[in-house]
């Protein structure tokens, strides 16, 4: 069995998490599109009493399609989200949680750990079911995989809905903090230059030159008298 993937910690590579941001941007946008589209079309499946008109036809087929599309993007968050989340929390400062342009989005991320954990459990269970099928029912995987996949996708829909809210917040915070990380090296260089200017161009050599210049000896009174 291959070793489980371990995301590098911020101390090992402080900026490595930023490479996942573009992938999450796309996934966050698409999972929100799926969620918004469902919220828009759902009333069409209801009768006047507020119940689904016929779950055996259009509504059920629409749900299966919705679940499959959403799960695809949930898996992207499972693959890339945890490392970005660690990087965000390592980079964000205490003041960011209290005020500023990302404080609200940071608050939205409070439950994302649970969302990713439980969605990850669904994926793990799916992998285990597929492995069991391969071991006990060789050659018949395709007969059962489709139904198992629908069950997995349906169970994952609730977490897809949560990521439709939390995902965009994560990418906004990540983009903001990535920009801050880019500006910090130049800020440090500017502060160093200011410090050098304040110290003066010759301040480093002044004390040395003063200490290195010998003081001429003073002639003793006796030598002065003999010279006369």
Can you tell me about this structure?
This protein has 228 residues and is mostly helical. 73% of the residues lie in helices and 0% in strands. The protein contains 8 helices and no strands. Helix 5 (112-136) runs antiparallel to helix 6 (141-199). The longest helix is centred in the last third of the chain and has 59 residues, at 141-199. The chain is globular. It starts with 20 loop residues before the first helix and ends with a helix.
Short structural summary:
This protein is mainly alpha-helical. The chain is built from eight helices and no strands. Helix 2 crosses helix 5.
Topology:
Layout: H1 21-41, H2 58-91, H3 94-98, H4 103-108, H5 112-136, H6 141-199, H7 203-212, H8 221-227
């Amino acid at each position: 069995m291959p070793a489980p993937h371990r995301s590098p910690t911020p101390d090992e590579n402080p900026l490595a998490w930023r490479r996942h941001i573009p992938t999450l941007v796309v996934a966050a946008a698409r999972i929100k599109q799926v969620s918004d589209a469902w919220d828009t079309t759902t009333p069409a499946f209801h009768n006047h009493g507020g119940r689904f008109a016929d779950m055996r036809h259009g509504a059920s087929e629409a749900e299966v399609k919705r679940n499959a599309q959403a799960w695809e993007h949930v898996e992207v968050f499972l693959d890339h989200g945890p490392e970005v989340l660690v990087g965000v929390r390592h980079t964000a400062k205490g003041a960011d949680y209290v005020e500023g342009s990302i404080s609200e989005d940071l608050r939205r991320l409070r439950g994302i750990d649970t969302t990713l954990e439980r969605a990850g459990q669904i994926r793990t269970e799916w992998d285990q079911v597929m492995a069991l099928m391969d071991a006990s029912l060789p050659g018949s995987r395709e007969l059962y995989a489709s139904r198992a996949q629908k069950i997995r996708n349906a169970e994952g829909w609730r977490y897809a809905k949560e990521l439709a809210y939390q995902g965009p917040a994560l990418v906004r915070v990540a983009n903001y903090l990535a920009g801050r990380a880019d500006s910090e090296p130049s800020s440090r260089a500017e502060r160093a230059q200011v410090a050098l200017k304040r110290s003066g161009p010759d301040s480093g050599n002044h004390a040395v030159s003063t200490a290195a210049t010998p003081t001429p000896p003073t002639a003793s009174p006796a030598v002065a008298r003999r010279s006369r």
